[in-house]
Amino acid sequence: MPDAFETRAIHVGQEPDSSTGAIVPPISLATTFAQRGVGDHAGYEYARSGNPTRASLEACLASLEGARHGFAFASGLAAEDALLRRLRPGDDVIMGNDAYGGTFRLIARVHEPAGVSWSAVDLTDLDALDAEWRDETRIVWIETPTNPLLTVVDIEAIAGVAHARDAIVVVDNTFATPYLQQPLALGADAVVHSTTKYLGGHSDVVGGFVALNDESIADEIGFLQNAVGAVPSPFDCYLVLRGVKTLALRMERHCENAHVIAQMLQEHDAVDRVLYPGLPEHPGHDVAKRQMRDFGGMVSFTMHEGEDAALDVVALTRLFTLAESLGAVESLIEHPARMTHASAAGSPLEVDAALIRLSVGIEAADDLADDLRQALDYTLA
Questions:
Q1: pTM, whole model, 2 decimals?
Q2: Of the listed 197, 250, 293, 357, which one is catalytic?
Q3: Is 130 in the active site?
Q4: Which domains, and CATH codes, for the chain?
């Protein structure tokens, strides 16, 4: 198989059907599979344990992440939960201080009551990480770029610290996608995705994925995938596979459009601060330039006049649809403090109420810029 990412996205795990020659691998809806004898089967027994369509997706996404093992789940949080279930009472997790609200909720409100401790740290500051480290720390949980502040974390540097202390590094690669960033090659031990976002890319499927190389961790994740049963349906796997075929092309357009939008926002008097790693003044620009192919399709910004102005803007756009989620072909706008990150209110991860998050789609960049501009102009009237 050729090495090019675009070629692997279309061909790995997706060979023409051997019995019919169908170019698109068939969706296998079967819940159970005939056995020639007890324990003598063709690789599949029961659909929770394994399914041909899911196997195609897992092979393709593992290849794109440069991983030996891949496991598909029913949602991104189900994928995260599988990694966190490896922890035992008394173990500790360190996460970034602007992590996704769902990740925070899962760790703080599901796993903490089960005996897992956690702390939130500025992972761009290795001294802060060192100060927060405990003997019980087992996982450092990285997002880069982060959701919603677009902070860039040096994966290689964090991996060096964690591995020296016998902890593992998990990287949520949802924002960057494997097209823009390869965390395992930078020293991460596991990569997690919400395939709902850029990998699916069309706002029509929910899913998650874990990619890793370590055999012992893979054995545990495989066991949990089967034992807990939070697996995606065959049709959901098909939809993600279909989306992945155009991932490279879509990400290039997402990045181009995001750069145009970030520059426009910088020039508008209603905007206080623009958060986008592609801007040279972004504090993580140099790290992002080193570990990413491009800077992604997410842009966040704050309003000079605070929350009321932010709420006005998200209500007035026409092409940017007010909605949660991200990473699809259409552009979305949201108010994190009241929407995706409401669960972080009152915690160290609480979000500025003046913040707006954009998922910049693949529409014409000028149309998107005009749409935002008219909404921003209203707040100055």
A1: 0.96
A2: 197
A3: no
A4: 5-244 (3.40.640.10), 247-380 (3.90.1150.10)
